[in-house]
From TrEMBL:
GO terms for molecular function: DNA binding. Keywords: DNA-binding, Transcription, Transcription regulation. The lineage of its organism: Bacteria, Pseudomonadati, Thermodesulfobacteriota, Desulfobulbia, Desulfobulbales. Residues 33-52 bind DNA. InterPro entries: DNA-bd_HTH_TetR-type_CS, Homeodomain-like_sf, HTH-type_Tx_Regulator, HTH_TetR, Tet_transcr_reg_TetR-rel_C_sf. This is Transcriptional regulator, TetR family. Residues 10-70 form the HTH tetR-type domain.
Length: 207
């Protein structure tokens, strides 16, 4: 019985999140009410609030889901011996596909994560910190393998590469990059150029 209750809870939560993807994408985040979400999900307003404290909380749930998927992607699909640039491309392209499954919803999700409202700021920062730590581990591993200099500040380095990703994502939304392949090619060029300055001198001489 407990298993059935938990399954029902997960199904209800999924229905609410599916409704959010549709309505945030069609109407925009600001123009979507909790009442409209409840109608689209086939539940009452009170049910929405039993799962999420606000609309911002719903968006943060997507960010948590994305983070969990990134961890899974890293563990299951990225070769252990892959080079740093290859790992970064695989992870950021996975995030790109996740964000752009629904173009307008993805735009809303990114805006709310980058510029969170006061009520959601603490939770947003917590998710951001987990995301940063995921990349810190990747860069630290590259340091240990001699692929990166030992004197670089890893958190700032993560921020630098995420900024490059946001630049490519913005270019896709504005139409300067037209396809997933264009985004990947742009990221590959930017990452390759950025990594040159982070490699030990011995690694630069090899290449």
């Amino acid at each position: 019985m407990a298993g059935l209750r938990e399954q029902k809870k997960q199904e209800t939560k999924a229905a609410i999140m599916d409704a959010a993807i549709t309505l945030f994408g069609e109407r925009g985040y600001e123009n979507t009410s909790i009442a409209a979400l409840a109608r689209a999900a086939g539940v009452g307003k009170g049910t929405i609030y039993s799962y999420f404290s606000s609309k911002s909380d719903i968006l943060l749930a997507f960010s948590e889901e994305e983070l969990a998927c990134l961890h899974l992607e890293l563990q299951q699909k990225i070769p252990v011996n892959a080079l740093l640039e290859e790992k970064l491309l695989l992870i950021f392209m996975y995030e790109f596909r996740y964000i752009t499954k629904n173009k307008e919803f993805g735009r809303t999700l990114m805006r709310e994560m980058i510029f969170p409202k006061a009520l959601a700021r603490e939770k947003s920062q917590e998710i951001e910190e987990q995301f940063i730590q995921l990349f810190v581990l990747i860069f630290k591993e590259a340091q240990e393998k001699g692929q990166l200099r030992q004197d670089i500040e890893l958190t700032m380095t993560c921020g630098h590469f995420y900024a490059l990703y946001l630049m490519a994502l913005s270019a896709w939304y504005s139409g300067r990059l037209l396809s997933e392949e264009d985004v990947r090619n742009a990221l590959q060029v930017m990452f390759s150029q950025a990594l040159v300055g982070l490699k030990p001198k011995s690694e630069i001489e090899k290449s």
